[in-house]
Amino acid sequence: MITTLEKLKEGMSAVVKQVHGGHKVRQRLGGLGIHVDDTLKVLRTGFLGGPVLIEIHGTEVGIGHGMAEKIEVEVMEKE
Amino acid sequence: MRIALVGQPNCGKSALFNSVAGYKTIVSNFPGTTVDYVTSPVNLNGDSFTLVDLPGIYSVSTSEREEILARRYLIKERPDLVINILDASVLSRSLELTLEILELKIPLVICLNMIDEAEKKGVEIDVGHLSQDLGVPVIPTIAIRGQGVPELFQSAVETAKSGNTGKIHFLSLDVERIISELADLLGVATATRLGVPQRFLAIRLLEEDEEFEQSVREINPGIMGDLQRFRSMLSECHGRPSDMVVSSERHSLAMNLFEHVAKVRPQSSKPFREQIDKYVMHPYLGYLFLGGILFSFFLIVFSLGKHIEEPILALFEQFAAYLGVHLSKESLLFTVVNGLIQGLSGGIGIVLPYLIPFLLGLSLLEDIGYLPRAAFLMDSIMHSIGLHGKSIIPFVLSYGCNVPAIMGVRIMERARDRFITAVLVTLIPCAARTTVIFALVAFYLGPLKALLLYVLNVVVIAVAGKILSRVMPDVSPGMILEMPSYKWPQLSAGMRKVWFRLREFVLIAWPILIAGSVILSLLEYFQLDERINGIFSFFTSGLLGLPSAVGITLIFGILRKELAIIMLVQALGTSNFSSVMTGEQMMVFTVFSLFYIPCLATLGMLRSTIGTRGMLFTLFFNTAIGTLMALATRALYWAC
Question: B240 and B304 in one domain?
Answer without folding.
Answer: no
